[in-house]
Amino acid sequence: MLKPTRQQEEKETGRIEAFSDGVFAVAITLLVLDIKVPHAADLGSQGTLARALLLQWPQFLAYVTSFATILIMWMNHHKLFNQIRRTDHWFLLWNGLLLFGVTIVPFPTALVAEFIHRKDAALAAIIYSGTFILISVFFNLVWRYAAHKNRLLKADKDDRFVRIINRQYACGPFFYLIAFALAFTNVTASITACMALAVFFALPIAGP
């Protein structure tokens, strides 16, 4: 059997990247649907537009943080595919599971925004942080399957990048599990931990 050319390999992974980019774009767009335009008829005689907008601060905060989180996940997905040049049946499955996790993000985001000041805030935070545990596991499945014995990596891969990503991704599920545990006792700390982890994964890989 002839070995696929570099052009054939790039075309093969290019289709996966294009499909994945579309899914990320849809997920990030859905987030804004939780921000509602106040209706003048609902403001009442004492209500003002400014007050109605201020009352939606949890929705605005959830939108900004989750937009940034999905953007960071897309950036990481893009970085992985800079090293991945081939695909197979199982890799398509793991990547599909990752995209499944990404599309779920708008739901726990809406839960946190709606219940952050209510008695069920802890449950909303548990679901929110639990979602990111799931996504971090899926990211590990995608990367470790591709990187195992260089199974799907390009010939001129960056070995240093591979080592750093291996270390980073090993930490992800563990630290998200801490955020999950915090949700049972301190909702603010749990959500803050999830945001801090997003910042961690957004950091560029330093030069040698």
Order of helices and strands: HHHHHHHHH
Query: How many strands appear in the DSSP assignment?
Result: 0
Quaternary status: single chain
- Shape estimate: elongated
Sheet having the most strands? none
Structural class: mainly alpha
What gyration radius follows from the Cα positions, in whole Å? 20 Å
Measured distance between first and last alpha carbons:
39 Å
Please tell me about this protein's structure.
The chain has nine helices and no strands. It is mainly α and 208 residues long. The protein has one domain (8-202). Helix 1 runs antiparallel to helix 4 and helix 8 packs antiparallel against helix 9 (187-202). The longest helix has 27 residues, at 121-147. The mean pLDDT is 85.
Brief rundown of the structure:
This protein is mainly α. Helix content is 74%, strand content 0%.
Question: What descriptive keywords fit this protein?
Answer:
0% strand; elongated; single chain; 208 residues; mainly alpha; 74% helix
What is the strand and helix layout of this fold?
Elements lengths: L5 H25 L9 H4 L5 H6 L2 H25 L7 H16 L1 H10 L5 H27 L11 H24 L4 H16 L6
Helix pairs in contact: 1-4, 1-5, 4-6, 4-9, 5-7, 6-7, 7-8, 7-9, 8-9
